[in-house]
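ugh ok fine here u go
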Amino acid sequence: MNDKSTKLLDYVQMLDHDLSVGSFSCLLDLKNRISDGRIQTQPELEGFFLHPMTDRLVRQDGAAIQAIYEAAELLDIPSIARIDRLLLGQTLKAQELEAASKQGKKLVKLAQALYPFLNLAVLEEMVHNNITPACLATVHAYINYQLGTSCDRAVYGYMQSAVYACVYGTARPLNIPRPEARMLAGKWTAEMEKAWLLEKDVLTKERFESKASSPHIA
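structure:
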């Protein structure tokens, strides 16, 4: 994309998919569905994009990015940590948190290298004090808030990066020609952007604000 706001996402795709704990695990899920025969055709792939991927990227990760923007505006660091734990709690088992913490430290270190002019002390404190592992959506959101990127643009960049990763990561086993894969990625990025615009005003309250006071979140 060659965009400062998505540089971290671009590097994660190039360097280490394991860093993408959280949203881009959609690609692993998708590859597993292909390998075990549950997805064999382009219509079945599009069914995956319709659900569960739209639910994951729009209603979970998109809402989290918006909630992190709101928390960052208020300097509410505990809420950022709670949101991150909520995200990871929906994707990781308890025994996997240690591995997620190691990946989070690597992710924040990469972010520091890519954005040396930003103050990422909040993220550093969270991962090095083991307050929360820091998943990709959290780090991407906080970086973009610091950059002054609009929340919608941050969400769009995140969704586009994930959709393109999934389409191009599975086009070969599904025999989808590259021009068609490009159109498919554009189509589903646009569909998710429309879903976000329709639902964003209620998503944060439903997904995160109502859970922020949960005694189970550190």
